[in-house]
Design a protein that fits this description.
Strand content: 15-25%
Shape: globular
Strand order of the largest sheet: 1-2-4-3
Structural class: alpha+beta
Radius of gyration: 17 Å
Number of strands: 4
Distance between the termini: 23 Å
Helix content: 40-55%
């Protein structure tokens, strides 16, 4: 109801759901994507992206123990395909590692995550380093 009212009073809308999607089920994420796509004035949707590798990392026993009060539920093998099926296409993707380097600001991660990523990065192949670089991002979606 709130979104419908805002839509009716707006010419163009940017929807920001940073920090929301990971906690939704895949079904709930699809419903939200469909609801937002139905808004006639929604021009952009900004949300966080976690790669399948990031999801696998979070499912490790130690990570699950540390994150037991905030489990991620929205885990997809084809994140971009999922949103495409719900009428959204990426307009821009900004990977956190790239933005941190560009801005000269390290990503604020717990020490154990920094250590694990640093250790893995030292021994990773070029492909492995690319996977690490694309671990997480912010994606700006537009209606298709």
């Amino acid at each position: 109801e709130l979104l419908a009212r805002v839509n009716d009073q707006s010419a163009r809308m940017l929807i920001l759901t940073e920090g929301v999607m990971p906690y939704l089920s895949i079904e709930e994420g699809g419903e939200l994507a469909d609801d937002l796509r139905a808004l006639s004035h929604a021009r952009y949707w900004l949300l966080d992206y976690f790669s399948p590798e990031a999801s696998r990392f979070r499912r490790r026993k130690e990570m699950q123990r540390r994150m037991r009060n905030a489990p991620f539920r929205f885990e997809l093998d084809d994140w971009f395909g999922f949103f495409s099926q719900h009428g959204w296409e990426p307009a821009q993707t900004r990977y956190l590692v790239d933005e941190a380097e560009r801005l000269g600001r390290p990503i604020p991660l717990p020490w154990f995550v920094q250590a694990a990523m640093g250790f893995w990065g030292m021994f990773a192949s070029k492909d492995g380093q690319e996977v690490l670089r694309k671990f997480a991002a912010y994606v700006l979606l537009e209606p298709r």
